[in-house]
Amino acid sequence: MAIPFLQQAYVGAYLMKQRFKGNKRYPLVLMLEPLFRCNLACSGCGKIDYPDPILNQRVSLKDSLDAVDECGAPVVSIAGGEPLLHKEMPQIVKGIIERKKFVYLCTNALLLEKKIDDYEPSPFFVWSIHLDGDREMHDAAVSQEGVYDRAVAAIKLAKSRGFRVNINCTLFNNADPEKVAKFFDSTKDLGLDGITVSPGYAYERAPDQQHFLNRSKTKQLFRDILKRGNGGKNWSFSQSSLFLDFLAGNRSYHCTPWGNPTRTVFGWQRPCYLLGEGYAKTYKELMDTTDWDKYGVGNYEKCADCMVHSGFEATAVNETLTRPLRALGVALKGVRTDGPMAEDVSFAKQRPAEFVFSKHVEIKLDELRRAKA
């Protein structure tokens, strides 16, 4: 597991504090999306299909840092859109680091060479560079040739400047296990500090709806990948061993949507990073007024195939705290890649999907029109 001891210590102390206080729901990672605008148009992305007035919006420096303070999560993942398009991003990152929070700045790296002098290496800062496989796989995923080479060049540059660098890798149903395993092997030559891997989520507004994984295909894909890497032990994942075990179908989890609360230009997103089913003005309102039992695998149709880290990593971390020997066993032995899979949750009582995306957009556009008037 490629999580530095400093981060493990800070996050571990935070988690123990929450348990000591008897808190049932608490955040692990704040997902901060300060803009939706991007300089790529990936076919599997559900974040950039907005009218220009919304794509032109930004969460300000003040509102970003207020969100960090209000939420209190020990880790902040800054996504988008493309965060490096945000003019106040260096100040946002600096402010979060000053609060002793760990920052993962997610980027496609196309602007990294131009912007890198605006940032300084820190044990609290990680470049999280989008890389969905080798050259052929990644350029196909982002719908543009040459992006892989630029991302790799950016990784080498950032490492040469003393930064911690991870990659985040999203896989779809056209992923070839052998190619993915070889790609993970090749990342060792880049000196990466960690790999974050996840199956793609079926965003309802994504242009490409044909290549998202269902649950059974996700489990088999990760078994086929991990067995080529000694149960995953050959690679440095920046994720818990139990989450990887879950991806391989060896455990059955309900998600923890409040574990990764999300702040966007719309506000605090209900119920999670992946679903925009409504928005709250404050973090407290999000936590106090969201009907959490309405969502999640087995509860809601849109969640049926989700096995994404933003929903289930917090569940795995909680189990790691309560069953540390089990987590240690998986870390030492590797993820089991054969034999029967764990029985999945029941879908018998899940409610049908509600399609409310356009309503939120209309409300926001109306707010912008009234503000301009």
From TrEMBL:
Q: Which SMART domains match?
A: Elp3
Alphabetized Gene3D superfamilies for the sequence = Aldolase class I
> Where does the Radical SAM core domain lie?
20-228
InterPro entries referenced in this protein's UniProt entry, alphabetically: Aldolase_TIM (IPR013785), DUF3463 (IPR022563), Elp3/MiaA/NifB-like_rSAM (IPR006638), Hopanoid_synth-assoc_rSAM_HpnH (IPR017833), Radical_SAM_PqqE_MftC-like (IPR050377), rSAM (IPR007197), rSAM_sf (IPR058240)
**Cofactor(s) the protein needs:** [4Fe-4S] cluster
- Which UniProt keywords are present, listed alphabetically? Iron, Iron-sulfur, Metal-binding, S-adenosyl-L-methionine, Transferase
One annotated GO molecular function is: transferase activity
Q: What is this protein called?
A: Adenosyl-hopene transferase HpnH
